[in-house]
Amino acid sequence: MPVDLNGYWKMISNDNFEEYLKALDVNVAIRKIATLLKPDKDIFHDGDHIIIKTLSTFKNYNMDFYVGKEFEEDLSGVDDRKCMTTITWEGDKLVCVQKGEIEGRGWTHWVEGDELHLELRAAGAVSKQVFKKT
């Protein structure tokens, strides 16, 4: 049985995020703003249906999906691209593969204790974020 991701999570660390944004070709002004933010994650998880809301004072981004079902993801809140996205469980890790213009793009979420870990990947760049459950 996959882990329960339900809850409200506050960011406590954000490593190598600017390099990840550079790999996505995000312009320098947006990168500078984004690296200063400490977004929260509000996650609703019911079986294969998951909604991940990334909330900040600058921009919010919502992902509403079913595990194992490919869908077209509109990343206009991130880097203004569209991609075909598939999210699956690999053990206790939620793994996302985003097929589009950027090679090797995706992310992985997993829980350790009261911390939610997120590894973001794009074109060889890797960013690691950690959130604490509130």
TrEMBL record:
Molecular-function GO term, any one: retinal binding
Annotated Cytosolic fatty-acid binding proteins domain residues: 7-24
Keyword entries, A-Z: Retinol-binding, Transport, Vitamin A
Family membership: Belongs to the calycin superfamily. Fatty-acid binding protein (FABP) family.
Function: Cytosolic CRABPs may regulate the access of retinoic acid to the nuclear retinoic acid receptors.
Organism: Seriola lalandi dorsalis
Name by which UniProt lists this protein: Cellular retinoic acid-binding protein 1
PANTHER family: FATTY ACID BINDING PROTEIN
SUPFAM superfamilies on file: Lipocalins
Top-level taxonomic group: Eukaryota
One family name in Pfam for this protein: Lipocalin
